Amino acid sequence: MVSKAAVGDLTGSVTVTGADAIGRLGSGLQTMVDNLRKLINNVQKAGIQVTTSATEIAASAKEQEATGIEQAQTSVEILATTKEISANTAQLLKTMEDATAVADYTTSATADAQGNLKRMDLTMQTMVSATDSINAKLAALSEKASNINSVLITITKVADQTNILSLNAAIEAEKAGDAGRGFSVVATEIRRLADQTSVSTWDIEQMLKEMQSAVSASVMGMDKFSEEIRRSVGEVRQVGEQLSSVMDQVQKLAPQFDLVLQGMQSQAVGASQISETMMQLNDATQQTVDSLKATSEAVHQLQYAASDLQSSVATFSVSG
Amino acid sequence: MKVLVFTIGPDRYGLPLRAIARVLPVVELKQLPLAPDYVAGLMDLHGEPVPVIDLSRLAGVTPEQVWFDTRIILVDYPAGDGGTRPLGLQAEHVAGIDSIDPEALRESGVAGAPFLGQVAGSAHGMLQLVDVDALLPPDVRALLFQPREAA
Question: Between the CA of residue A120 and those of A218, A239, A241, what are the distances in Å?
Fold first, then answer.
C-alpha cells in the first residue's frame, strides 16, 4: 500500500491496526494518506475550477477587447463626423460672412440711392419754382402784349381818322380851285403817311397775335410740364420711402446675421472640443485594449499554469 | 379832274370831288323799314337826320362786311325843289383820290344802271364815273326827301 502511494496511488488503505507502535504508525500513515487524498482531491477540483475560470476570463477579456476595438472604430467614425461638422461650420461661417458683406453693401447702396433721390427731389423742386417764375414772366409778357394791342388800336384809330381827314382836305383843296393846289399835295402826302401807318399797325397786330398765341401755348406747355414735375416729385418721394423701408429691413438683418455667426462660432468651438475629447477617448480606449491584451496574455499563462497543475495532480489517483 | 375812288364788288368807281361835301367814317345807322334794301338807313349828322344809300346794294352787289375803309361819302343831293339836301353814300374800299385826264374819258357805250357814267383808264386800271344826280329813281327821291313844309 505504501509502495502504491509512493507512485501516486492513494486509493489503498492501511490494513495494519493495533495499539502498538506498528499499529499506531499504520493508523498515522492511514490518516496522512487520507489527508493527502483529500488535499489532492481538493487541488484537483481547484485546478479544474482555475482552468474554467481562466477560460471564462479569457473569453470575457476577448469579448472586452472586441468591444474596445469596436469602440475605437466608432470613435474614429465620430471623429471623422466631427471633422466634417467642423469643415461644414467653417464653410457656413464663410457663407454667412459673405451674406453679411452683401447686406452691408446693400445698406450702403440703398443709402447712396436715397441721397441721390433727395438730390433729385431738390432739383425737381428747383425746377418747379423755375417753372413758376417762367409762368409769371409769360403772364407779364401776355399783359404787355395786350397793352401794346390797346396802343395799336389807338394808333389804328388815329391813322383811320388821319386818312379821312386827308380825303376831306383833298376835297376842300379841290373846291378851292387853283388856290388849293398846294394844299392838295400836302393832303395826298398826309394820306400816304396815314396809309403807311395803317399797314404797319396791321403788320404789328399780326405779329402781336402770333406772339400772344405762342405765349399762351408756352403757358399751357409750362403748366403741363409743372404738373408732370409735381407727379414725378411724388413718385420720387414714394421710391425714397420704399428705399427707407428696405434699408430698415436690411439693417435688421445684420444683428440676426451676427447671432447666427456667434452660434456658428460656438458650434465650431464645440465641434473642436468634441474632436479633442474623442481623441482623448480614443487614446483611453487604445490603452484599455492594450491592457486587455496584457490581461489576455496573463490569463493564457494562468491557463498554462493551471493545466500544468492539473497534469501534475493527475498523477495522483484519489478515487476508489 | 379828281375823283374819289371806291369799289363796288371787284370793280373801281370814281365820284368827282366837286360833288362831294365830306368823307365820314361809318357810323351806326337807324334802319328804315319798308324802304328799298339799298337804303342803308338814317345817320345823325350834328343832330340833322341824313338818309344813307348803300352804293354796293344799289348796284346789286351785297357787301360782305363793313371794312376798315368803308366810308360814308356825304354829297349835296338836288332835292328836286331847286335846293340841295345832304345824302350819305356808303361805299367800300374808299382808297383815295385819283386824277383823271378829261380827254381820256369815254362813253361806256353800254346802257347799264342810269347813274353809271363815262369810263376812263388810269394808272390803276379802268374806272367808271358815278353820276350823283342820277343816283336815285324819282320815287325813292320823293320818299327820302319830303318837302320841308310837309315834314
Answer: 25, 12, 14
Distance from CA of B96 to the nearest CA of A (A): 7
Residues 6 or more apart in contact with residue A8 via CB below 8 angstroms: A315, A316, A317
This complex has an ipTM of 0.85
Residue of B4, B18, B68 lying closest to A167 (CB–CB): B4
Cα gap A230→A124, rounded to integer Å: 8
CA distances from A128 to A235, A241, A310, B87 (A): 15, 21, 120, 66
3-state secondary structure of B46: coil
Q: What are phi and psi of B118, to 5 degrees?
A: -70, 160
Between CA A20 and CA A16 the distance in angstroms is 10
Q: Are B85 and B77 in contact (CB under 8 A)?
A: yes
User: Best of A152, A158, A162, A164 to disrupt the B interface by mutation (most B CBs within 10 Å)?
Assistant: A164
Nearest chain A residue (CA) to B3: A171
- Of A168, A215, A227, B39, which Cα lies nearest the Cα of A176? A168
Q: Is the pTM of this model over 0.80?
A: no
Residues A171, B96: C-beta atoms closer than 8 Å: no
A149 within 8 A of A243, measured Cβ to Cβ: no
Chain A residues whose CB is inside 8 A of the B20 CB are 171
* Dihedral angle sign, alpha carbons of residues B17, B21, B26, B29: negative
Instruction: Write the DSSP symbol of residue B68.
Output: T
Q: Where are the domains of chain B?
A: 2-144
Cell output for A225: 410740364
C-alpha cell at B48: 340833322
CA–CA dist B141, A262 (Å, integer): 123
Question: To the nearest whole angstrom, how far is the Cα of B149 from the nearest Cα of chain A?
Answer: 31
CATH number of B2-144: 2.40.50.180
For A202-252, how does the pLDDT look when each residue is reduced to its tens digit (9 = 90+)?
999 999 999 989 998 998 898 898 889 889 888 888 988 998 888 888 888
